[in-house]
Design a protein that fits this description.
With 272 residues, the protein is α/β, with parallel strands linked by helices. Helices cover 21% and strands 36% of the residues. It contains six helices and 17 strands. Strands 8, 9, 10, 11, 12, 13, 14 and 17 form an eight-stranded mixed beta sheet that branches. β8, α3 and β9 form a beta-alpha-beta unit. The radius of gyration is 18 Å and the shape is globular. It starts with a strand and ends in a 7-residue tail after the last strand.
């Protein structure tokens, strides 16, 4: 569904990382974890193509109505640079929710979520949804440095392999890795995922981030005998499966990231 969304806030988090919150009731009430919205920029310089943004979270107003949608995005070109210029009371055309989201097996009791950089964004709503279903979750999150990590969650630094118990119940946990060692484990997030898959039993793994990272996580999950899904990023034009600009090679032939994905079973992806 295409709706006009009013900008509630558009805030710089750190570096080129921004958070956009819009009032889009139809999108907020129908969005599922892992889906995305296709956003048309207007009024601040015209851009022909829409910009696909993963849905980070949905929020309720004071009456409990879920009307608000959050996106976290990185400035990587003219389109996202223009998006960062939007302010409160500006409006955007938002088409969505689009795509296939995460589909954990019904019997999932414990899940490992692995995110790299801004690729962690599509996993955040999934973490909340799994928690609401009583499913234990461990998020392994890789960032470039402490500033980028703190942009997602404010917390003190952890020693290698240490895990923060987010709510004190032992059912929602997170572990961090940074390239420079300034926050959490000094190293790659795939080192965290290998560690936890070797130490604990999981029913489901979800991964999003750089493709080489996801390929490694998929191989780790397969070796551990755990079902794994990955969210793939491709350049998109239409966002609804008509233009075939976002093709993904799979064991079942070519599929479209926008309509058949962006979430795929890791076993069907033919990694490049």
């Amino acid at each position: 569904m295409d709706e006009i969304a009013g900008v509630v806030s558009n805030t710089k988090l750190t570096g080129g990382l921004w958070q956009l919150v819009v009032r889009a009731p139809e999108l907020a009430r129908s969005a599922q974890p892992g889906q995305f919205a296709h956003i048309r920029l207007s009024g601040h310089g015209e851009h022909v193509l829409r910009r696909p943004l993963s849905i980070h979270d949905v929020y309720a107003d004071r009456r409990g109505d879920f009307d608000y949608v959050s996106f976290i995005y990185q400035i990587i070109g003219a389109g996202t640079e223009t998006l960062a210029s939007y302010r409160m009371e500006d409006s955007l055309e938002v088409l969505g929710p689009l795509g296939r989201g995460w589909h954990p097996p019904e019997a999932t009791g414990k899940a490992l979520l692995v995110g790299g950089g801004v690729g962690y964004v599509p996993l955040m709503l999934l973490a909340g949804t799994l928690h609401a279903r009583g499913i234990e979750t461990l998020s392994a999150i890789g960032m470039r440095d402490r500033d980028n990590a703190l942009a997602f969650y404010g917390a003190s630094s952890y020693r290698t392999w240490d895990v923060r118990d987010v709510e004190g119940s032992g059912r929602v946990r997170e572990a961090w890795a940074t390239d420079d060692g300034s926050f959490g484990h000094h190293g790659l997030v795939t080192e965290l995922s290998a560690h936890f898959l070797g130490e604990e039993d999981f029913d489901y793994v979800a991964a999003c981030g750089p493709e080489p990272m996801m390929r490694i996580v998929a191989e780790q999950a397969q070796a551990a005998g755990v079902y794994c899904e990955v969210s793939l990023e491709r350049h998109m034009a239409c966002g609804i499966g008509a233009c075939l600009s976002c093709i993904v090679a799979t064991t079942e032939g070519q599929k479209r990231a926008c309509a058949d994905g962006p979430v795929f079973s890791a076993r069907e992806v033919i990694w490049q």
